[in-house]
Design a protein that fits this description.
Elements (H helix, E strand, L loop, with lengths): L1 H21 L3 H4 L11 H10 L28 H108 L3 H50 L9 E5 L4 H7 L4 H10 L2 E7 L2 E5 L3 H17 L4 H30 L6 H8 L5 E2 L2 E2 H19 L3 H10 L13 H11 L4 H9 L9 H15 L8 H16 L4 E7 L4 E6 L7 H17 L7 E6 L10
Parallel strand pairs: 7-8
Antiparallel strand pairs: 1-3, 2-3, 4-5, 6-7
Amino acid sequence: MSFFSNLSTLFTTDDKGKKKLGNKPAHQTQQPHQAKVAVAPHQAQSANQSAPQGSQKPVGKPEPRPSFTPSPKTEVKSPVNLDKVQLEAEAIIRDARAKAREIIVEAKDESLEIRSKVEKETRRIEQEMANQQRELQKQLDKLDFRFEQINQKEERLDQLKKELEASHIELDKVKTKTLQRLEEISGYSKDKAKEVLFEGLEKKLSHDFAQMVAQKEEAAKLEADEKAQEILIEAMRHGATDYVAEYTISVVNIPSEEIKGKIIGKSGRNIHTFERRTGTEIDLDSSPTEIKISSFDPVRREIARISMERLIKDGRIQPARIEEIVEKVEQEIDRITFDAGKKLIHEVGVYNIPNGLIALLGRFKYRFSYGQNMIKHTIEETKIGTKIAHELGLDVNVVKLGCLLHDIGKTSGNQDENHVNAGVRIAKQFNMAQEVIDCIAQHHEDEPFSSPESMAVYIADAISGARPGARYENHEDYIKRLESLEAIAMSYEEVKQAYAIQAGRELRVLLLPEKSKDDDVTVLATKIRDRVQKEVIVPGSVTVTVIREFRDQAMTKQ
């Protein structure tokens, strides 16, 4: 606004000045005799030179112009030209004045429009603010009313709470008096009455419980048997290996029977030196093309086998050469175990394993579990576990590593440490993932299963160890396990006799009909199964079969 005001003032002042100039009479503006005279340059220079050098111009007084008569050559503009120039200037001024007035009018109109819009927007905002204020006031009134209601409810709840506490105290007193009265009347204490009540309920509901268990088992079988069989059969088919369990004998093939004479040596000195140096026994009579090396220590037996193969290939079999070859093989055993570990991880398809862990896995070559070689057991279990993981959509890498390392604790060398705890310790030492550590810790159910992957490792281990021909065990341990199975079944008073059959894979239980009911068959089978699972270590599963048969006899009189 100030800009337009200044512009208006400027044009107003100019208009007044022009008006004064334009109002002059024509005879005053037209001065034909006072025209501009062009002075030659040499005349101005001669005039400057004619002035005295020491003279000074007075300060503040204008210097009087010298009067001179124009020469005939001086050019003077005519009055007609001056009038024309003046008219053109006045026309230009009028046009400028008109444009200025148009600009001022437009600016004023625009400013009025802007002011109108601002006033309208201000009124709208004020109206909205007033509406919002009224709405907020309504909400505040509602909140105040709501708070008042809540306070009233809290007061009522506090009062009800006090009344309930008083009622609970009164009920506890009545309950205590009633229990005391019941104990006096029945002659039973509270715990004894509870025990009697539960026994009655168990007998009363045993039929329903047995029926429910049978229905649940039947439904689970219908849903799971077919799929489980398919998965397990496919997994075992892919995991099957072409070997039998190794026990305590290694076999070395010989090209001809003449080699046996060199092995025996003069007066048997060669074979005696070999047996004394390796700590093994040599059998040359079992086959004309084989030599059997036996020892309970698999490391000694492996050293003896490699040494014998090298001696046969070398041909120089004598005591000094035997000592030299055996010593070299003993020094190379670490390299042999490391190569066995590398071969194992390549066989199961696991890579990027630390060298220290590969060396420990290579020791499986000389480890046996119930006669089953650990390397071959690990290969078989890993193949089965990997197939199960693929079928069920599990994490294949976790299952594969869990199967590969589940028995790594058996190579720790500490006989007093449980192999599960040792395996967990070794896995943590080599920074294995927690999921893999859980598989190691839970593969014998020492801990509850934390993931489907750990369950898959457990199942694969059980399949590999429990299949026929995979393992064998000590006769005394076998008898002890069978006796434990029968003792668990005979601990129930309604059991007449129990038999562990099929090498401990089935426990057959016969009930006394006069001390049991048909419903007890299902309940007792479940109880015995749970105890066997907790108390007896069995390679594989045990089937508990409970039989109740009622017989009666009648004789005719003679």
